[in-house]
Write a structure and sequence with these properties.
This protein has about 200 residues and is α+β, with helices and mostly antiparallel strands. The protein is about 30% helix and about 30% strand. The longest helix is centred in the middle third of the chain and has 16 residues, at about 115-130.
Length: about 200
């Protein structure tokens, strides 16, 4: 008899030392609007706020909450307990025990801090250790060298480039760089993230 795999990933609160990931809700709109600078979304697909306003962020949140195969979180640093960005589980494939981490953005003043590495630690730890994931993938625009460096620093393996993979809102046809972490690699990746985070203790 086939094993039951649904539901697999559901909205949960993920607690870290520096960051709390909360299932996104309309109340986060006001806080997120303060950090949703236009430049942050330069390489994002059409799933982005239409402008930096509370109304636009509430529309953005409603769109995320209404999408199947996606669980989106507000990124809440413990220093302020105010949302400063979002991140998602997406392309959820329960039967394959595979998921993608993506649509991540963080307000500029929080970039390069403990926030992003702990977000990735919480999401990867939940996927591999609680949900039994076999694969977690990440992808980014071929032009987005900052994102590629961050994913490689995380310890994910580059799998290749999907050429002319997506048409962006401005009409540009982008290449997509694919990365992944598989279950056997998770202990190594986790150790690296914990070491990075120890520097912020």
């Amino acid at each position: 008899m086939p094993r039951k795999v649904e539901p697999w990933i559901e909205p949960v609160v993920l607690e870290g030392k520096f960051v709390r990931l909360e299932p996104i809700k309309p109340a986060h709109g006001r806080e997120l609007a303060k950090h949703a600078e236009e430049d942050i979304f330069k390489y994002h697909t059409s799933l982005r706020p239409r402008e930096q306003s509370i109304a636009a962020l509430k529309e953005y949140i409603a769109k995320h909450r209404g999408m199947e195969g996606r669980v989106t979180f507000a990124i809440v640093p413990r220093k302020t307990m105010k949302a400063v960005g979002t991140t998602s589980y997406m392309d959820i494939r329960a039967n394959d025990r595979a998921v993608e981490i993506g649509t991540t953005w963080i307000g500029s003043e929080w970039q390069g801090t403990e926030v992003n590495p702990e977000c990735k630690l919480l999401l990867l730890e939940h996927a591999f250790e609680r949900l039994g994931a076999e694969r977690v993938q990440l992808k980014t625009d071929g032009r987005n060298l900052q994102s590629q460096r961050a994913i490689e620093k995380l310890g994910a393996k580059k799998e290749g480039v999907l050429r002319r993979h997506m048409i962006m809102p401005d009409g540009f046809v982008r290449d997509t760089v694919m990365y992944s972490v598989i279950a056997e690699e998770w202990p190594r990746v986790k150790a690296g993230l914990l070491q990075r985070l120890s520097k912020f203790a």
